[in-house]
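Lab meeting, action items carried over

1. Structure of the two-component assembly. Owner: GW. Status: complete.
Input record:
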Amino acid sequence: MYNQKLLLNQQRAPIYEALEEFRRNRVVPFDVPGHKRGRGNPELVRLLGQQCVELDVNSMKPLDNLCHPVSVIKEAEELAAEAFGAAYAFLMVGGTTSSVQTMVLTACKRGEKIILPRNVHRSVINALVVNGATPIYVNPDVDRTLGIALGMKLSQVERAIEENPDAVAILVNNPTYYGICSNLKRIVELAHANNMLVLVDEAHGTHFYFGEDMPISAMAAGADMASVSMHKSGGSLTQSSFLLIGPKVSQGYVRQVINLTQTTSASYLLLASLDISRRNLALRGKEAFSEVKRIAQYARTEINKIDGYYAYGEELINGDSIYDFDTTKLTVYTLDIGLAGIEVYDLLRDEYDIQVELGDIGNILAYISIGDRMRETERLVSALHDIKRRYKRDKSGLLDREYISPQVVMTPQEAFYAAKEEMIPLEQTEGRICTEFVMCYPPGIPILAPGERITGEIIQYILYAKEKGCQITGTEDERVERLNVIKERL
Amino acid sequence: MDFWFSELHTPSVKLSVQVDRQLYSEENEYIRLDIFESPEFGRFLTVDGYIITTERDEFIYHEMITHIPMAVHPDPKRVLVFGAGDGGVVRELLKYPNLQRIDMVEVNEGVVEACMKYLPFCASGLEDPRVTIYSENPLRFIRHIENEYDVIIVDSAGFYGPGESLLSREFYGSCCRALKEDGIMVNQHQSPFYDEDRLETQKAHKRILENFPISRVYQAHIPSYPSGYWLFGFASKLYHPVKDLHSRRWRSLGIETRYYTTNLHRGCFALPAYVERMLEDVENIPD
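Predicted assembly:
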């Protein structure tokens, strides 16, 4: 698309090839890492294997340098850009968190406004704490039965743009953790007509670039930047990710922003895994993701045969706040068997040795990917069946809301650095302004972000989520019994 | 010719069997299957490199996994068998004249075909009209069945990527539901001897205890399996494996066996002290 110079050979994997060559050359290491191909740390070699520790090497001429790529890393980035249809692609080693933060730090600065749905990942608001920009939240639509936050309605985006013509960017989840997509193409048109950049969090959307009959990808929709979690549905190692940009964004400036916070000792295990996974998806992604869809669809059908569970799919699409649905996501609504999602999530692990991606108030999410097979899928379905048989109970008394609209009083940065009253018991914080994050992890979407008012409903929600066994994170108090709030009572 | 089949029983212990020739080899989405001819064990079947059935000692395994539950249940009419593609369990079951129906779930059609061709001493009964073979995933087959079978035999020896789904809690839960209220389930329980295998034994025992009120373990000597010493699990909703044994009734059936006897039946539930302790370890874990 943007790379019209020449078609690159997607069979190549330049970083991987350079590492292979480097290994054959048997170079004597008088540089870091100090384990020296594992010799200095035999226990680590036993755990990871000789081949793995031999690849844990430092940047050097034949292997390029991620902070300023000129050879094999640059080639790998160009290949990735072509595979994703982007003007340029950056290999990222700080997780998709680093990609998302780079997008925000590139697009806006202190005093500027950015429009975003409130159900963003914490990394977005973290970036606002760092750079001092002001979030303009679009409250997502909420599905009343399922309790989950949906996409942004176009009318809401339009209104946010009208009310904030000075905003510089719009951030969109494509899709949400639960697989829900907004009308990205229209949002891009609206944003561009108003001189705003479009940043897309595609932590859960790598496969949109390779599979058939998938929701539209950020680059295909004409967005300006996208963060793609290659390590989620793409198959690379945990913590590796891609940051994609379109033609309007300066490649050199983005590199400078990345280098503000990125390590200068990037792991070649992560880089090589990105390179190889990109090659795999470019060559075989279409077939691989059609199999993923098939498995997810099969599981959905089988789970929906069990009375009491609802594995939702494309029938949710409503043309607006659920403009499209990612059918590789297997999310199951559990409240009708009288169990919170997090309770089913815990039972699956503790009693059935099955680990799913997330359990929240009303749902579990099983991540189906290119590594899945039918036999494990059958286990998941049968385990859900057995859980219903053994643990079903009356559903009264269960909370059914995942999402509470926040009351934003000040920017995340102002609140985070404001004069605080520290460690106030949670129950006594009603009406105060929180200076820190509170979230269930996963999904990592804040219940409270710095600068938001704590309400009775939110306190009830946090207490309930704790009681049900959700992992609550973000606060200075590691037991989340106390919160930091702003000193003045606003 | 110096041609040997070897199987690692632990990372540092190996059993080698001299082979005359390889009769068959197949690899599909689930497993790799090989059949060899050997001087000592006769024909033998391996799955993913593990010996599953040998002509020489298969009678021990098949008799012990079949006749123990069949001699306890007073009137078994419908039996469900998992795995068992070699046909050995079905051959033993067909010795019971009152048995009406055998459903066999073997995900691998290839196993059945190869065994019918190369292991006729085992597979001869698979074409009997009382037998229906379902080529389906076991969990999928069983999860919607309720109150249908008198006996379920889980002959999982390494068949589905080391029998994993047949060692799961959801599988035993589904089996319990599929059995009638006086139903019996028997499964193979690995060898208690080597550390890795012992953990499997304990896990299987724990998973069964969670689902059945009666769960007892019995033993047999199987030379071609790791350590040569093998355990089976007897799980039931009502009958005790020894107190409810009907010796006279079983003997009156006139079934011919080479390993199983009703005397051995009583004895095989008496376990070595180290095995008893190992089972007690999981029995005492509070749920």
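2. GW to write a short summary for the group page. Key points so far: The mean pLDDT of chain B is 92. Chain B is about 30% helix and 30% strand.
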